[in-house]
Fold this sequence. Notes:
Elements: H1 17-30, H2 33-48, H3 52-63
Helix pairs in contact: 2-3
Amino acid sequence: MASERGGARRGAGRKSKAEEMGLAKLLDQCFTPADRAEVFMSLAEMAKARDLKAIELLLAYTYGKPVQRQEHSGSIDAYFIDIGGEE
């Protein structure tokens, strides 16, 4: 009796390139280059009007998000247990 556990699940994983291209073609039909230009012009106008979210979005797509650094403070306690390695 074959087990149904493990292995790839149906529908799991990345979509095929053909499916991705089909989606891109559909988006091009529904959201034309003229529509996109209009949206970006509106977004630029919002940014010029000092809309912070619009400014952040435009800067992130134009220059990339800035590197986020994380500061760590305090001590780190590490315990190592010898589980029978070489002597």
